[in-house]
């Protein structure tokens, strides 16, 4: 299915965003916003310091080339963090009638830089969609990456309700959920749920560099899930982490203390209290996972049913079709395929009251159940 079709299916029939939207920066986020708005019939004008990146975004349908006589009603700054403040300042000056927002993953540093320069920020509203992919660039852009994702909007006392409605309308048009936060709260929050996880994934994946091939052949879905985001671009993350260093260091210090406690307990695993220390760590992890919002915005725990799937065309589609016949909704899916094996494992997340119906129904249809959560 095309990204245009995805956007139309997920977005409202009539766009809240009107007029011309100028997007400065045609990388992953900028181009993805362009694709989604273009699918709604919004006029999208793209600008980028890189002519090659800009042409690529236009060729893929993210918008048109910006023109000198454009009069945008909204400007979205989607550039690397180290130039975000500079571009915001320039856009505010060049387009005095436009509302300006940015999608940088750090909000406090550019705000401080702009205030220090004495820039009038009455038309600027910082924002941040909590969405993305491991690979960047216009070629990786998708219209649907914002659907169901939080979009933080940072208002202050100077923000008019009309301008706030413009930025929140943009988020809603893209299928995101607007959430108002202060820049300080935003940066502390993303340090915990985004920036430190990136470091943890990268540090863990770096241990694989010198590992024996025999060891890596044992890797399953757990290690792939844990290190998935380690494929992110180092150049971008150096900027992000540098701009949000203090909150990140605070979380890293606490995490380092937790790891040291576990390591100390495992040095003498038979010592009094050691096993309890390890168990408490795993239990707290269980509790933390349960607090993460579920598929429908709730703290909801799903059960897993692992099904063996033959490595032949059409089998996964047949599995989904038969789950539908059983009135079982697939809340999430993970696939694991071991090298050399002629089958894969499909780990399907379902609501707890659907587990027995799924297992009994699939087994009756000839599927082999490898395990369930309660096994």
What is the compact description of this entry?
With 375 residues, the chain is of the alpha/beta class.
Strand order of the largest sheet: 3-2-1-4-5-6-7-8
CATH topology value of the largest domain: Rossmann fold
Number of strands: 12
Mean pLDDT: 89
CATH architecture level-2 label of the largest domain = 3-Layer(aba) Sandwich
Overall body shape? globular
Describe this structure in words.
This protein has 375 residues and is α/β, with parallel strands linked by helices. The chain folds into three domains: 3-181, NAD(P)-binding Rossmann-like Domain (Rossmann fold, 3-Layer(aba) Sandwich), CATH 3.40.50.720; 189-291, 6-phosphogluconate dehydrogenase C-terminal like domain (6-phosphogluconate dehydrogenase C-terminal fold, Orthogonal Bundle), CATH 1.10.3660; 303-372, VC0802-like, CATH 3.30.2130.10. The chain is 46% helix and 16% strand. It contains 14 helices and twelve strands. It has helices at residues 3-10, 28-39, 51-59, 81-94, 108-116, 161-173, 183-206, 213-216, 221-227, 234-243, 245-267, 274-291, 315-325, 355-364, and strands at residues 20-24, 43-47, 64-65, 74-77, 99-102, 124-129, 150-154, 177-180, 303-310, 332-336, 343-350, 368-372. The strands form two sheets. The protein has an eight-stranded mixed beta sheet, sandwiched between helices. Helix 1 crosses helix 2 and helix 7 crosses helix 11 (245-267). The radius of gyration is 24 Å and the shape is globular. 31% of the residues are buried. Mean pLDDT is 89; it is low at 1-12.
Write the layout of secondary structure elements.
Blueprint: H1 3-10, E1 20-24, H2 28-39, E2 43-47, H3 51-59, E3 64-65, E4 74-77, H4 81-94, E5 99-102, H5 108-116, E6 124-129, E7 150-154, H6 161-173, E8 177-180, H7 183-206, H8 213-216, H9 221-227, H10 234-243, H11 245-267, H12 274-291, E9 303-310, H13 315-325, E10 332-336, E11 343-350, H14 355-364, E12 368-372
Parallel strand pairs: 1-2, 1-4, 2-3, 4-5, 5-6, 7-8
Antiparallel strand pairs: 6-7, 9-11, 9-12, 10-11
């Amino acid at each position: 299915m095309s990204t245009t079709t995805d956007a139309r299916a997920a977005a409202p029939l009539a766009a809240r965003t009107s007029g011309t939207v100028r997007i400065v920066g045609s990388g992953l986020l900028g181009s993805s916003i362009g694709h989604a708005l273009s699918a709604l019939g919004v006029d999208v004008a793209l600008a980028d310091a890189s002519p090659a990146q800009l042409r690529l975004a236009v060729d893929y349908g993210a918008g048109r080339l910006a023109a000198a006589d454009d009069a945008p009603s909204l400007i979205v700054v989607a550039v690397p963090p180290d130039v975000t403040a500079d571009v915001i300042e320039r856009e505010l000056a060049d387009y005095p009638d436009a509302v300006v927002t940015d999608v940088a993953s750090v909000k406090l540093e550019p705000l401080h830089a702009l205030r220090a320069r004495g820039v009038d920020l009455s038309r600027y509203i910082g924002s941040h969609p909590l969405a993305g992919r491991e690979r960047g660039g216009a070629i990786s852009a998708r219209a649907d990456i914002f659907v169901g994702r939080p979009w933080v909007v940072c208002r202050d006392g100077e923000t008019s309700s009309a301008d706030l409605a413009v930025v929140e309308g943009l988020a809603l048009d893209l299928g995101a959920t607007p959430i108002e936060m202060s820049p300080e709260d935003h940066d502390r929050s993303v340090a915990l749920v985004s920036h430190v996880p990136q470091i943890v994934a990268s540090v863990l994946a770096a241990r694989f560099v010198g590992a024996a091939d025999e060891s890596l052949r044992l890797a399953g879905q757990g290690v792939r899930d844990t290190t998935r985001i380690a494929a992110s671009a180092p150049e971008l993350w150096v900027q992000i982490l540098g701009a949000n260093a203090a909150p990140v260091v605070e979380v890293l210090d606490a995490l380092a203390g937790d790891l040291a406690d576990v390591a100390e307990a495992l040095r003498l695993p038979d010592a009094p209290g050691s096993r309890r220390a390890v168990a408490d760590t795993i239990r707290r992890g269980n509790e933390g996972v349960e607090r993460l919002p579920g598929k429908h915005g709730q703290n909801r725990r799903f059960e897993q049913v692992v099904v063996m799937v033959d490595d032949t065309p059409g089998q996964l589609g047949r599995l989904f079709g038969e789950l539908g016949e059983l009135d079982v909704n697939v809340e999430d899916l993970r696939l694991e395929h071991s090298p050399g094996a002629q089958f894969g494992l499909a780990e399907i997340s379902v609501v707890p009251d659907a587990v027995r119906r799924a297992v009994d129904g699939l087994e009756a249809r000839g599927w082999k159940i490898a395990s369930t959560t309660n096994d």
